[in-house]
């Protein structure tokens, strides 16, 4: 029985987690309004075609930092607060804003900003959690916020802004996005948009005639003139906010347009697109709670997109499935479980736990790979196009290297590397997603798939390898200082792993840097310009080369090797993230203020581990079970 358990428990555990993953792939069925089908409608925003589902999720991430909306944030999770999906929230913002304006969707963490906006503090009795507020609560302070935002943008330098000033800019951007969404389908002040649209269409001939007569100095109907001018001002107001482009080009030629643009063009003799009328019918039915009318108008609009926009519909459906799959989040959960099992296997030397961890890492890696390939297909781009995708790819590469190490050494170390690096990088990616669309339109200078597939992939592989070497070094330090599990054989095995990965990292970092220089020569007319990002890439190469030089020259042994490898974590983190925070240079595409604090904490933690690595051998717990100078010979460091 024991042998049976040891043999079959690992694959059984993997099967359970696989069923959990595949069970989450099925989208919840619509009970009344067809929100899932509504989320599959295509729209163009920020330069790329995407489904409304992605627009809803990305917008909620920016506004609330979650992909769902909690309508009762003052309740704890065991009190079953009311949670609604992103697409339902978006439908209300676009078609029934009077309801959406009362929902606590805006997250506000800065106490000074809360005071400035005159928002209520935490009061559970009055249903205030002190962090989430509605549009209606913020609206009375909009004018003051606009002035404060202008002051911060005009009179402060980005690098010197206080937390309060950064919060002002972030809140202003969130409110602006919300207004864009409110003006996507109809004017934000519309009461009965279907009827108002029909009235405007009927008004156009008389309104145009009145405008022409007024311009010619002839007699005109002042009431019709003013009414028509008021409608044009409404639509111009919609257009000025640059909302999502929701109207497809007629006859499959031309560009997507906003509703405001279409209605302004109608005053010049253009026909109003049927899509505008379809959305108006949807809006009217939704606002009045007419489920059948909404679903029927939605089906009619989807039918009108076939066959001219069949590819757009197919792409939108594929992206909605990707959103529902959440491969990176699900892989992250499995990485955590695998890592814990692998670590526990060190303490009781359980082969069953180690094998279980390996099976789970394989499953997580499969899901991680599936998500990576899916993104490549959706974007039509190589795997690395921005900071978000670089985190995804670095985690994938680190996991692959860890699995290779585990294949040869079978001691759980490779499994911990795979699980740990996979989890850490996916957490980083999840936080980077808060800045908006992770499949954003490429900058023109980066818009070349060949160099994205060669230089960027090579240099990012170098990042991943350097981090893996550093992670192995952390395992060496932690097990050596805090546990008695670092015996002589394990120490030598870890040192060999670190050395081999550093060799690998040096190669890819060097090749990637050279390829980057060639790309720069073709794009900017110079091979090297001492740009901060270029300098960072060069420093990684030099640091890895230095480690190899010290090792080959006998100037460092095991502990010296792992201490230097941890230094590689610091160098790589600055080259990957730090230089972007400078906000200067041709490579500052992924600037993010939020990451600065975490980068500083990470660097501080690595310095702390280096200090632990330099402690005398007698202070290491593992020294009691090993010959103190067999491995800890530091005389020549």
Helix content estimate:
55-70%
Major sheet strand order: 1-2
Run of helices and strands: HHEEHEEHHEHEHHHHHHHHHHHHHHHHHH
Which percent range describes the beta-strand content? Answer: under 5%
| Total helical segments | 24
Specify the overall morphology: elongated
Largest sheet: 2 strands, antiparallel
* Uncertain segments: 627-636
Rg over CA atoms: 29 Å
Question: Which structural class matches the secondary elements?
Answer: mainly alpha
What's the average pLDDT?
89
Question: How many β-strand stretches?
Answer: 6
Q: Report how far the terminal alpha carbons are from each other.
A: 52 Å
Protein described:
It is built from 24 helices and six strands. The chain has 637 residues and is mainly alpha-helical. It has a two-stranded antiparallel ribbon. It has a two-stranded antiparallel sheet with strand order 3-4. Helix 11 (222-240) runs antiparallel to helix 12 and helix 16 packs antiparallel against helix 17. It is elongated, with a radius of gyration of 29 Å. The two termini are 52 Å apart.
Which short descriptors sum up this protein?
637 residues; mainly alpha; 66% helix
Give the secondary structure arrangement, pairings included.
Elements: H1 2-23, H2 35-39, E1 42-45, E2 48-51, H3 52-64, E3 68-70, E4 83-85, H4 86-95, H5 97-100, E5 106-107, H6 111-116, E6 132-133, H7 135-138, H8 142-155, H9 163-182, H10 193-215, H11 222-240, H12 259-266, H13 274-287, H14 291-304, H15 310-325, H16 327-348, H17 351-379, H18 387-409, H19 413-432, H20 449-482, H21 488-524, H22 532-552, H23 558-581, H24 594-613
Antiparallel strand pairs: 1-2, 3-4, 5-6
């Amino acid at each position: 029985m024991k042998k049976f358990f040891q043999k079959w428990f690992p694959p059984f555990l993997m099967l359970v987690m696989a069923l959990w993953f595949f069970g989450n792939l099925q989208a919840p069925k619509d009970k009344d309004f067809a929100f899932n089908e509504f989320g599959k409608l295509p729209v163009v925003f920020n330069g790329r075609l995407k489904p409304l589902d992605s627009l809803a999720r990305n917008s909620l991430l920016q506004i609330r930092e979650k992909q769902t909306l909690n309508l009762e944030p003052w309740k704890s999770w065991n009190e079953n607060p009311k949670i609604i999906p992103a697409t339902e929230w978006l439908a209300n913002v676009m078609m029934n804003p009077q309801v959406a304006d009362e929902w606590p969707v805006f997250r506000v963490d800065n106490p000074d900003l809360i005071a400035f906006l005159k928002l209520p503090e935490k009061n559970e009795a009055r249903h205030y959690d002190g962090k989430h507020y509605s549009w209606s609560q913020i609206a009375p302070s909009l004018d003051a916020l606009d002035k404060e935002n202008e002051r911060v943008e005009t009179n402060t330098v980005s690098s010197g802004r206080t937390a309060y000033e950064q919060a002002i800019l972030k809140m202003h951007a969130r409110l602006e996005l919300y207004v864009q969404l409110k003006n996507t389908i109809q004017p934000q002040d519309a009461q009965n948009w279907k009827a108002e649209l029909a009235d405007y269409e009927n008004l156009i001939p008389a309104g145009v005639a009145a405008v022409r007569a007024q311009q010619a100095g002839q007699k005109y109907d002042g009431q019709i003139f003013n009414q028509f001018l008021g409608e044009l001002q409404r639509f111009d107001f919609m257009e000025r906010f640059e909302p999502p482009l929701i109207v497809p080009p007629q006859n499959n030629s031309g560009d997507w347009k906003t509703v405001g643009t279409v209605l302004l063009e109608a005053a010049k003799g253009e026909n109003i697109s049927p899509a505008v009328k379809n959305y108006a019918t949807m809006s009217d039915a939704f606002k009045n709670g007419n489920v059948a009318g909404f679903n029927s108008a939605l089906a009619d609009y989807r039918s009108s997109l076939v066959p001219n926009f069949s590819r757009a519909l197919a792409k939108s459906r594929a992206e909605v499935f990707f959103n529902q799959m959440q491969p990176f989040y699900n892989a992250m959960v499995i990485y955590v479980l695998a890592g814990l099992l692998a670590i526990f296997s060190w303490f009781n030397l359980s082969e069953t736990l180690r094998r279980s961890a390996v099976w789970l890492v394989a499953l997580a890696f499969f899901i991680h790979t599936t998500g990576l390939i899916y993104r490549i297909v959706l974007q039509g781009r190589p795997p690395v196009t921005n900071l978000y995708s670089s985190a995804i790819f670095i985690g994938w590469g680190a996991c692959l290297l860890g699995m290779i190490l585990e294949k040869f050494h079978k001691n759980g170390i490779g499994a911990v590397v795979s699980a740990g690096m996979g989890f850490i990088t996916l957490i980083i990616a999840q936080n980077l997603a808060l800045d908006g669309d992770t499949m954003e339109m490429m900058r023109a200078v980066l818009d070349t798939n060949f160099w994205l597939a060669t230089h960027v992939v090579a240099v990012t592989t170098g990042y991943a390898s350097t981090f893996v070497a550093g992670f192995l070094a952390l395992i060496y330090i932690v097990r050596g200082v805090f546990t008695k599990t670092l015996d002589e054989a394990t120490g030598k095995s870890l040192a060999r792993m670190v050395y081999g990965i550093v060799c690998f990292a040096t190669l890819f970092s060097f090749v990637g840097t050279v390829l980057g220089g060639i790309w720069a020569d073709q794009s900017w007319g110079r091979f090297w310009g001492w740009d901060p990002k270029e300098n960072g890439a060069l420093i990684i190469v030099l640091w890895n080369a230095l480690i190899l030089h010290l090792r080959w020259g006998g100037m460092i042994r095991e502990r010296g090797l792992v201490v230097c490898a941890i230094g590689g974590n610091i160098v790589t983190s600055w080259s990957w993230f730090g230089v972007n925070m400078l906000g200067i240079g041709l490579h500052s595409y992924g600037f993010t203020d939020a990451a600065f604090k975490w980068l500083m904490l990470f660097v501080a933690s690595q310095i702390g581990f280096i200090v632990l690595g330099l402690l005398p051998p007698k202070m290491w717990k593992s020294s009691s079970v090993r010959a103190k100078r067999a491995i800890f010979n530091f005389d020549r460091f």
